[in-house]
Amino acid sequence: MKKLRWGIMGCAQIAAKAFIPSVRASDMHAIAAVASRDEARARAYADTHGIPGAYGRYRDLLTDPDIDAVYIPLPNHLHREWTIEAARAGKHVLVEKPMAVSASDAAAMVEASERYGVHLQENVMYRCHTRYDRIKEILRSGEIGAIRGLHGVFTSDRSAMEGDIRFVREMGGGSLYDIGCYLFSAARCLLEREPEAATAQAFFSPDHGGVDMMASGLVEFPDDVALTFQCGLWADFANTLEIRGTRGTIRLPSAFSLRGDLSPDIQVTAGGETRTEPFERGNQQQALLDRFARAVLLGEPEAISPWDGVRNLQVIEACLASAREKRRVAIDALDAGASSAAGQ
Description:
- With about 350 residues, this protein is of the alpha/beta class.
- Helix content is about 35%, strand content about 25%.
């Protein structure tokens, strides 16, 4: 089968740690080139990672006829510009999360992908792990009863990382954008509905560009179900999720990150008994990439609609507004066309 030929936009560490090894673990992909605004840096990165081509301008990458798709791990505020440019050039796009810095920017990206007939995917790789399909199966079976609430925590301590782009507000920095996005995405995925309002409190650190280094809050869903959450860039590491029902609970000790020796197993408590369901660690990133390739090369349905990323940004923006203005913020619904697409 033809391979999906990738170009990488920027020399990001996340590309080296996750994207490149995952591409090379699959026979469905090949990396053709990398681009940076510094050609010497692009060539050094290409040499280090065995990438054939290197460009000193992003636009040169987009005019390369041997590239089918681009991976965009650039700072959040650049996602809109370069996703639209890539779509205009006829390239499929995998863009890092969050999709953009605003729901309106993300919607413009989706609209461009639709206009130019390319696939656009936010890199929500955790959702492609088989355990999330299993969790949905348990929820639909009624084993833990009706869902009464979810609680998620995703925190790490990056406070000493001087010059980190996560500390630049204008670039979409802060914990809600960086890791809160996982919590909101998971709740929306598992509840299979969209939230109505959010209330959040945050610590905006003057030592870190005034971005939210810790946030806690409540996201309200229909039928009086809510997600309570904590996310932070200046706190002890955790990435947990708990779904509590009327007759039981599902716990994910490692809900999103499976780095190091973190286990993908889930714990299910029902009928007064607790069991652990084991899962292979697998490669979440490769699973998403392979689904993306099948959509592009074989015409299979997209795993996750790109409108999902737009909806997630609506939640992030509501939480930020709530934290800054000290009030409950309603979450606006997308228009009917986008709503239909988001449900795919």
